[in-house]
Specification:
- With 440 residues, the chain is α/β, with parallel strands linked by helices.
- The chain is 38% helix and 18% strand.
- The chain has 2 domains: 149 residues, Rossmann fold; 229 residues, NAD(P)-binding Rossmann-like Domain (Rossmann fold, 3-Layer(aba) Sandwich).
- The strands form 2 sheets. The protein has a 7-stranded parallel beta sheet with strand order 9-8-7-10-11-12-13, with helices on both faces. A 6-stranded parallel beta sheet has the order 2-1-3-4-5-6, with helices on both faces.
- Strand 1, helix 3 and strand 2 form a beta-alpha-beta unit.
- Pfam families: adh_short_C2.
- GO terms for molecular function: 3-oxoacyl-[acyl-carrier-protein] reductase (NADPH) activity.
- It is an enzyme of class 1 (oxidoreductase).
- Keywords: Oxidoreductase.
Length: 440
């Protein structure tokens, strides 16, 4: 559904009126297209404190395709290496580095702060590095004009090369609706990509709930990035599922993911195994708890959470998810902040977060597989188009970018998780919500 307010504030009368009334002024977001695959402008590389990553970070930033410099009048991106900040006094270097440049950041620009994991053995270092999280989340709410800010934490002992896929994503149009997020990397080997224009070439991906909406967009982006895609959805949606699969040159698999033999049928459809498993299928059956019958509760838990647990366990046990594989689940901001009338849905999505945090380290150790989740906020779909007007407008505006996201924003984040080079990205819950004012 078109965002008429966004269009109106892009006109001269709209800009004048919204300024006079103190209303939100959302900036159109620049997303990836074949014609404009990268941001345009210089990348400003700054350092706060003493860094041990200077030698490895420079080549990684150069690989983004942006012109890296230590001085720029109007940078499109700023990367601040704050890994060397270990004391409260050292935070002054963060202010000194970014204070002079934030006003000159180009519209739709990116700020990425590199930090390290807070140490359990050094409370001064832990305080300084945790401070960066509050700093980045606040900065993301201040930048405006479609700009975003993120914090990327390098694991102890890891070098900047482990962050390449993450920095490529965050410093590109693909991350347009991701802001105020913290990504903690592990020390695991990141993996290799032969062709960054098709990072999933030769890999097989399965997407559940792929007939329409976010699932169809995820399938489309994975196919764009070179994957062989299997599109799964319930038999009732077979006609639409087949149309989506045919459009992408993918395989349609009509299947109820809650069926007892779902994992066996998935394994049969992927005889060479899966490299990417995306759990996107989900339903809502909204009612306040006092008015919610048991069947409405049970159906949401079964589809959104229990089926994910069952199929993931079975596919990992059977070896259907290949080593080096990626599992990506779909959580929700509702699972983080809660939502009136959605105790069942919020419980299921919070459960996904618990699944990811618990399973990720064990899946990596035992199967060589990473497990992450996207947590969408207000995304423009048929479901949100049916929301009453005033509630819909509140959902759109209550974030740092003052607008709703698109299904492709969730898909791009999923594709980043799915890359072979994202091996150091594990156990992460990344909100695709424009830095919603709800939740953390």
């Amino acid at each position: 559904m078109a965002d008429r307010y966004l269009h109106f504030t892009g006109t001269a009368p709209g800009r004048f009126l919204s300024r006079r009334l103190g209303l939100p002024q959302p900036a159109p977001l620049r997303r990836w297209t074949l014609e404009t695959p990268a941001l345009e402008g210089p990348l400003l590389h700054l350092t706060a404190g003493d860094s041990t990553h200077a030698d490895t970070l420079g080549p990684v930033l150069a690989a983004t395709g942006l012109k890296v410099t230590t001085r720029a009048e109007r940078p499109v991106a700023v990367v601040l290496d704050a890994t060397g900040v270990t004391t409260a006094a050292g935070l002054a270097d963060v202010h000194a580095a970014l204070h002079p440049v934030v006003r000159s950041l180009a519209g739709g620009g990116r700020v990425v702060v590199l930090g390290t994991a807070p140490s359990p053995d050094d409370h001064h270092q832990a305080a300084a590095q945790q401070a960066l999280e509050g700093f980045v989340r606040s900065l993301g709410k201040e930048l405006g004009r479609g700009a975003t800010a993120q914090l990327v934490r390098l694991a102890p002992g890891a070098d900047a090369a482990s962050a390449e896929s993450t920095l490529r994503f965050l410093l590109s149009p693909r991350s347009a609706y991701v802001s105020g997020q913290v990504v903690q990397l592990t020390a695991d080997a990141p993996g290799e990509v032969t062709d960054w224009a098709a990072p999933l070439y030769g890999r097989t991906a399965l997407v559940t709930g792929a007939a329409r909406g976010i699932g169809a967009s995820v399938a489309s982006v994975l196919a764009r990035d070179g994957a062989r895609v299997i599109c799964l959805d319930v038999p009732q949606a077979q006609e639409e599922l087949v149309r989506t699969a045919d459009r992408l040159g993918a395989t349609a698999l009509p299947l109820d993911i809650t069926a007892p033999d779902a994992a066996d049928l998935i394994a049969a459809a992927a005889p060479d195994g899966l490299d990417v498993l995306v759990h996107n299928a989900g339903i809502t059956r909204d009612r306040r708890l006092a008015n919610m019958p048991a069947d409405r509760w049970a159906s949401v838990i079964d589809v959104n959470l229990d089926s994910v647990l069952r199929t993931t366990d079975a596919l990992l046990k059977a070896g259907t998810v290949n080593r080096g594989g990626r599992i990506v689940a779909t959580a929700s901001i509702a699972g983080i902040a809660g939502n009136n009338g959605q105790t069942n849905y919020a419980a299921s999505k919070a459960g996904i977060i618990g699944l990811v945090r618990s399973l990720a380290p064990r899946a990596a150790a035992e199967h060589g597989v990473t497990v992450n989740a996207v947590a969408p906020g207000f995304i423009e779909t048929k479901m949100t188009a049916a929301v009453p007007l005033f509630i819909r407008e509140a959902g759109r505006r209550m974030n740092s970018l003052s607008q709703g996201g698109l299904p492709v924003d969730v898909a791009e984040t999923t594709a980043w998780f799915a890359q072979p080079a994202s091996g150091a990205v594990n156990g992460q819950i990344v909100r695709v919500c424009g830095q919603s004012l709800l939740g953390a």
